[in-house]
User: Fold this.
Amino acid sequence: MIGKIAFTGSRTATAPMTWGQRETWKDVAHFLPTVMPFFFIRRRVEVPEGLDLAAVLDTIGTLISRHETLRTRLIPSDAGLEQHIVRSGVLEAEIADAPTREECVAALDAHQHRQTSVAFAHESELSLRVIVASRAGEPAMVGLIFSHVTLDMQSATLCAKELTALLAARAAGEPAPPASPARQPVDQALIEQSAEGTRRNEAALAHLRSVLETGAPSLFGEIVPTEGPRFRRGRLTSHTMPDQLRAVAVRTRSSPAAVLLAALTAMLYATADADECLLSLIYGNRSEPELRHAVGNVSQEVVGRFTRQGTTFTDLLRRNTATALRAYRHGGYDPVAADALIDEIERERGVRFNRLIRLNDMWSPTHATDRGGPRDLPAPEPAFDWLEGFDDDQVTLMVDVFGGPGVLHVVLLADMFQFPAPEVEAFALGLDRLLAELAGREVALDEIAAVTGLAGGRRSTTARSAGRRSPAR
Assistant:
């Protein structure tokens, strides 16, 4: 069954893609026609009782009308792709019905799985797909699938929260809560093309040059081919890590995000027997008030040269925080110009920079201070499992962190040729052990290999690595 979602915005407009859109599109285009999981961002919203299908579809239309990102197509031009905002139209939604809640959830999962097996046709398709799952004819939940080219993770979460509030108001017979003031992507693109945007871009590129001119090109060394998919994704699930991060943050007078970053770099140093690494961090670029509630793709990656200094974990944390803050100040830049700069520095130094090592902390901005309700049962032991594998990617190691107030998922996508499966699992479980130890006491950097169960002593080299690298995704 197909439902119709009508929407009407305030304008139509065409502008260059934003830097964030161009950055993600560059990665998407690398893989097409192969479809990769990161092409999509999925969210699920519960529907309160008392709303019929027409009311739910109309409320989704309100959300689409408010946010130009959700009415965006990408159209070819002489300068490349441009973002085009559709003022009004109708979006089709798939409707799935099941007799029980369990079957309703399964039906929604099946529809979302199918809809994320086909890439967005951005020239003709809006950047949102919708599934409404009904239980015995009454809407129970809405599945939202966003194109990652036009939305970042925080924007998807903002949309889900806003739709939840709109549906609750509709069910209660109250006026719709107003939209939060925010800059639209077309306006963001115009700022990036302005003189101020040029100044920011030049400063960001100067920072990138300063990092790459001195940073070690590689962390894990030479490529050693193995059987099976070259890239595999594994997942650590921990119900104790959220409280551990909070406890270490209190003890060190920092933040859970800073603790997580320091723990990750400490594990990298211990695994590779290294004293420095180039690390890419996802930065939300939402420090400006106009971007705090923006729905678009404003996140970009920043690169920092992190070094192992001091004798304790807290020493490392303080140094890391300063390095990260310097990188965050340069979070907005033209990704095409950044790639050209990397090529230039590679030629100057006679090296190829290692494939990306990246941290994407999606947990801390939402759940770092949200402890949730009390836990009735003891937390289960941390568990590690392997997910899917790929023959092509652009990374050495990607660490994506997400979850809820009382659970943390650490998903590691690793190049098996440089970071073999046993080391990936040991890395993930060791990260949990390190945080458990740090929650109770200070840990010396020289203790970390023993505390985490790592073998230690793995060589690090500046050997060249094959394949294309990027400072950002």
